[in-house]
Amino acid sequence: MQFLKSTVMGLGSAFTMGSVGGLPYTLDMNEQKSNDALVDFLLLKGKSKNDGSGVSVFKSKVPSNALTQNALRRIKTLRHPNVLAYIDGVDVPNNGHVFIVTEEVTPLTTYLEDIRREYGSNSDDEKLLVTWGLKSILSALKFLNNDVKLIHGRLNPQSIFVTKGGEWKLGGFELTSEPNHSALFVQNDSTVDPRFKAPECTRREWASVFSAPVYALDMYALACVIIFIYYPHFSSPNDVSHVPSNLSTMVKRSTDMSPTRRINPDQALQNSVFNLHFLQQMAFLDELAIKGPEEKIEFYKDLCATIESLPKHSALFKVLPALKSVVDFGIATGTGGKAGNYKLDPSESHMLPAMVKIGSQLPPEEFKEQVLPTLVKLFGCNDRAVRLQLLQMMESFAVHFDAKLVNSSVIFDNICTGFHDTSAILREYTVKSMLHIADKLSDSNLNTKLMKFFAKLQTDPEPAIRTNTTICLGKIAPHLNASTRGKVLLPAFCRALKDSFPHARLAGLRTLVACDEYFTYQDVACVIIPAISPLMLDISPSVRDETMTCMAEYIKKIQEEARQMKIREAEEEQKSKDSAANEPAQPSKSITSSHPSPPLSSSSWNEAPSYSKPSVSAFSAAAVDDFNDDGDAWDDDLDDLASPKKEPEPIQSSVPAVSLSWSNATPAKTTPVVPKKSDDDFFGNWDAPSSSRTGSGSLSLSQAGVPTSSFSNSKTSGPATEPKKSLQERRMESKAKRDTLGAMKLQSKPKGGQNWDWDM
């Protein structure tokens, strides 16, 4: 039976090698820290089986005894921010070990080596962190000695531990007892390092120990710890030459040979060295839950302004978790990203800039793990102050978003609620935030939903919102698809050109130039130049200057395109000639005239393209039609540029037909018909026929027995006609007709470029 019992106990010990005495934690036996430094315990690294969080596990080196049991009992009952935080523990029965599970910590000696390696020995950051740590230990002694009336009994560097955030915690309570003869520090004083033992303990004068203040023993030991920090190889408390001057006075008073003259921890905390701004911030952070809203707002603003001066470890592992806990405790019940589920205190919105600013110091993967979940929760908050802070800081953390998260209802849908918010500043920052997530938006969200919001915002009553909408649209244009760019950009920018706000017009001009790669030359010539032309006389000097610059650039581009078009046309014409020369000759069709057709010069582009012989009556009708214009008040010759003129129908007349032929009798120089540049050139000289109508070498009228100058006689024969009007009457009639139709055309055109329909 005894054999069976020993076998079961052996198997039980084997199965618990990697466990913590049956507690829900696992040990990493390879991660052992300073095993030799601690007297009674091994410091091991562990993890919680529930959430995987890191912990520190103190495992007794020997089976359970009075010292290890006392350490477990004391740490369970001592609760203070500067005392090592107890999580779980067990005293394994049947000669087992003692396990104490605490927050994840590092021994003081290891921590000092790390910060000196990172920040440098005697650096400002090292002094700051050490000063903060000493204040924490003094606060723990004040609690232990003055409030609980206990003596630690073995205060040395091995009983001080440091968290990842740089907080110093008091531990090692194996000898902690009340001041009496049965105290463990009396019975086990041989386990105390002589360098940190008070002289009365060395002399074993326990009566003077019990009659002295409770703090006397521990303050002497703390003074020796301060000397050790600055000079690890010290041999006596008189080696204070390496201690900073602002701490040397406290060290000397704490190491006084008379226990009654030693300084109280409460008095030591009044030292000016502990009045640093950084220490005040850390103290406020510890009491954040009991502070008022106004105090919190002031603290958050100050913290955000001084983040760069904080030691990195303290900012990442002390300040950041504290700020995250504010959000976790402030969020009301509700899950997911539904708006309205979360509610924070109004003062907490000022905390977000500091949290994001600190989180930006983390590597990308750690930021996604530690900060991003908290930010995603905040997007579901319906508090305007929180939403505004998130939009303002979008640039800082949007790079950590992936496309799936951005297009989810948690992010995009909650952001879009700001487009139609009644607060103007919220609408404005919602527009600006799109710049940072546009590249991750899906096709439907970007090219459909977002464009609808932007179209509405271009008519927003706030000028700044209209301006920023145009600027934002120009900046996200590369992310739009080609179809959306063709439908949206040009109408939106041209609408901005008609805005009453000068900066909005200026934004329209600049975005047009910035996005000119998406516009064709036809867009420039037919839409953009007419749209920006009125702005050359804008009331704003900056708009005028920008318009002149834009117009010059566009004209230069159009001129270059026209030159390229001419080159292409010449190349095509040359190709057609080359292809015609390579083809076999084909019989040409006959024309009406028996004479060879002369070449068509640039000066004769108003002549009919056909050289058939018209009748005199037709020629007369053409002459009369000069005054029966088509109602557009423009010279009929301009119409020939668009399409060739139809040959007029012959008019019945009693005058015999005359032949239209080329005069070859006298080789006269062809004079090109050049219209006069004066305003009255349209009417011509009514008293004497213009030479342009009967050019001296161009056309001639010839028929035997019929005078060539009797155009008026051609109308005398035939039916009776109305009496011929005088020259003045005909001028007035033509002018009236032109003015009326011209006014109608001007009314149909936009005035000053402000009525063009560029609406989306």
Automatic annotation (TrEMBL):
Gene3D superfamilies (UniProt xref) = Leucine-rich Repeat Variant (1.25.10.10), Phosphorylase Kinase, domain 1 (3.30.200.20), Transferase(Phosphotransferase) domain 1 (1.10.510.10)
Q: What is this protein called?
A: Wu:fk36e11
Q: Where is the signal peptide?
A: none
- Give the span(s) annotated as Disordered: 568-608, 627-760
Natural source organism: Thraustotheca clavata
Q: Where is the composition biased (Basic and acidic residues)?
A: 568-580, 722-740
Q: GO molecular function, one example?
A: ATP binding
Q: Which domain of life is it from?
A: Eukaryota
